[in-house]
Backbone:
């Protein structure tokens, strides 16, 4: 089912030191935050002043409907948004969207993208199929970016990958523990979709430990406010290093795709559960293993 309301929207911390923000009026700065948290999964929303007032800031009396067109121009001038026309209505694209948002799933927008913009899609279509388009792309999605292939955004056929579904008793599980990993093994990146086979499980303890340690450092690293694209690695303590070694030995017994490890650390980070025991529970759930001793 397509998501109809915005969830999990985080206002970027980097705005605190962004020089563009200092050039905005107070009303425009206030409106920007509200636009951001109401964007859909592609960072898009209506550009109609009446709809913006009703949906974004209905209880802010000092921002009126007549103020909104000028405030949008302010934001567009500073490079925060792009206001454009679709076949049916006016729309807004948040230009910094994919530089700041870290979504696990991204449904299509009901608004067409602006010219030159590449949507990034990852959503479930049915119980065992995931559609991915441009997911994990390192190319910055910017308006008026030259497309070297000459193809317009959205013309590429969606890449589809099967989901590995756990037994029914796992899907119907009760209690908090069974909600880890959403009950399904993760859909791997678009690199493994389509005609390419999914990677086979790895049973090499040293490789698994290396991946666990690398993901611990990078996926749970600290991002400085002044350099939002930089990650300061988190070094494991002696106790955490021992836990990683134990987990590597446990996973090597049955094997695990290395990509599962990275996604398990991201799953834990998305729930602010920075504990190796949580990662272990996620991986066991995705691998269809019964809950074992800690």
Residues:
């Amino acid at each position: 089912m397509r998501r109809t309301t915005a969830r999990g929207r985080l206002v970027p911390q980097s705005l605190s030191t962004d020089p563009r923000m200092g050039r905005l009026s107070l009303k425009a700065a206030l409106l920007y935050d509200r636009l951001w948290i109401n964007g859909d999964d592609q960072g898009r929303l209506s550009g109609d002043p009446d709809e913006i007032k009703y949906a974004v800031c209905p209880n802010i009396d000092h921002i009126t409907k007549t103020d909104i067109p000028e405030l949008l121009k302010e934001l567009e001038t500073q490079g925060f948004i792009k206001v454009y026309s679709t076949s049916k209505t006016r729309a807004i694209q948040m230009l910094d969207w994919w530089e700041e948002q870290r979504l696990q799933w991204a449904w299509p927008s009901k608004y067409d993208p602006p010219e030159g913009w590449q949507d990034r899609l990852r959503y479930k279509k049915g119980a065992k199929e995931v559609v991915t388009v441009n997911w994990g792309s390192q190319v910055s999605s910017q308006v008026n970016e030259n497309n070297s292939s000459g193809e317009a955004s959205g013309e590429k056929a969606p890449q589809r990958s099967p989901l590995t579904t756990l037994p029914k008793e796992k899907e119907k599980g009760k209690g908090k523990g069974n909600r880890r990993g959403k009950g399904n093994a993760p859909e791997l990146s678009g690199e493994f979709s389509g005609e390419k086979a999914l990677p086979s499980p790895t049973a090499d303890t040293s490789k698994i430990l290396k991946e666990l340690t690398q993901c611990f450092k990078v996926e749970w690293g600290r991002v400085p406010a002044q350099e939002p694209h930089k990650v300061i690695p988190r070094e494991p303590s002696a106790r955490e290093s021992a836990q990683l070694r134990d987990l590597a030995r446990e996973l090597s017994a049955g094997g695990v795709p290395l990509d599962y490890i990275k996604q398990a650390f991201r799953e834990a980070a998305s729930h602010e559960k920075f504990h190796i025991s949580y990662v272990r529970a996620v991986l066991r759930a995705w691998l269809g293993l019964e809950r074992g001793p800690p």
In short: The chain is about 35% helix and 10% strand.
